[in-house]
Task: structure prediction
Amino acid sequence: MERPSTGVFWRRPVVLAAALALATLAVYAPAIGNGFVDYDDGMYVTANPRMRDGLTRDNVVWAFTTTEALNWHPLTWLSHLLDAELFGLEPAGHHATSVVLHALTAALLFLLLQRATGATAASLAAAALFAVHPLNVQSVAWVSERKNVLSTLFWLLAMGAYGAWVRRARAIGYAALLACAALALMAKAMAVTLPFTLLLLDVWPLRRGPLTRPRLWLEKLPLFAMAAGASWEAFKVQQEAGAVVHTEAIKLTARLNNAAWSYLAYLGDALWPSGLAAFYPHLESGLPAWRGALAAGVLLAVTGALWRLRDRAQPQLVGWLWYLGTLVPVIGLVQVGTQAMADRYMYVPLIGIFVAVAWAVDALVRRGTVPAAAALAAAGVAVVALAVVTVRQVGVWHDTVTLFEHTIRVEPRAWVAHYNLGNAYESMGRHADAVAEFRETIRLRPEFARAHNNLGNSLDALGRSAEAVPSYERAVQLKPDLVEAYNNLGIAYAQQGKREQGLTALRTATQLRPDFLEAHLNLAITLRQMDRLPEARVEADAAVALRSDSALARYHRGLILALQGETDAARRDLQVLQGLDPSFAAKLQAALQAPAGGP
Result:
């Protein structure tokens, strides 16, 4: 291994790394002006009650014990909690953290490559391409993907620790390797392929001998054990949550076809990153078998050619195998979620592609086949062009509507985009637009119960409650445990005068979820309207027990108490209401003053 250059200061690796980090920050600076998006950001930050309290002792314990968000990733939760502690729920700070982590990762990648190979120009080119490539925007500009940039930073730190241990064979170096590997896994389970990438480094650039040497495998046994444990935990959590798609839904042959084709499609996006989207759906009929066969043939041909040229093309072989191997956990053989591909999955695999390309050009320059000036100019043009596209792609993640309108333009079959855009329109009061998006979601994904439920909500908001009922009925038929749909169906029935049917639906909601405050309240209201006050009182008491600070629950219980003639008890609720919501307090006061305690 070569020592860092001691020449002109601006050629020194640390200075170049700092310049690369600053350039990366400049390219991604627009992300700091973005908001949160209604696409997992609620689960991680905006609607997560833990974030209100920030980095407390209880929340630290929770971070290490929860499997919320279908993952065990305590370091990711601690990162979000720290941001909430520092910035509250203002998005700028959360975005800034992700941008800084990405800039540090790009700079670290350059330093590691330069330290291991001594090839400053090739190392800088590979790291610069990683820093500004548009495929990485999803990982950086989406707050929910903090786990990706955080995990990769510790992945590279583990590689640095490994290099130090190989050079000096000190216990502290190996301990640092294990610690960084553990932190990478505690941020995102995709780091399970880390030990395999270290084996690739043994081949090149560390040149520690062929992989047939048992020592190279034995020394990594603790890392393989950690990776196996993390893989099993991730699979178990996601399977228990129902996120793992069974072969009945997507058959193994379809998965194999999609996996092979995705390898080529990702390469296409790396070469020509246009039409990038937040979600890529599977084809309903599956990919044609010829596509999978063609892709598999190409992958085997490239692998075979590089293997035959392995003595002269070690960087290209290692980079290619890095790309193939690091994509394995997310290529869809074990299908988690419903996406066919995802830009975020390329964050680590892209490194292999850029290493292969950068060292191929470097070899051409060294042989005199390509003039150094021409190679430098081409690299500069490529980096600038990619940076321009990245700035535009960062703007796509500005807000929920912008994100999903863009996704639908480039991927009209993206039912997730139609569904989330419908939710965004509904929250903006654009009910007619929401109806259109939910209908399109249902056309593309007829069995998606939540789309039927939300379509009913939008129709009801437009005053078309009679049309909403079939949507709610279809929702509970498709998903018998969808409590929100039972609640909405109960309200819709009651509005149509079908109160007994409404009571049945509402009781089902409370049975499925005993802590469902809204359903208890709607039961109390419906029963009060039917003059079944003792039963209404029970439901109102249940609502207050669930949320003693709910003004709505206090108001309705006070109203029921007043109708029952229990004026003193009603006034106690009134007293509490005065501190919770004066407007509800005034309404309850008027009810208490009405003749015979009537409303």
Q: What stands out?
A: The two ends are 85 Å apart (CA to CA). Residues 9-241+347-400 form one domain. Confidence is low (pLDDT under 50) at residues 1-7, 244-248.
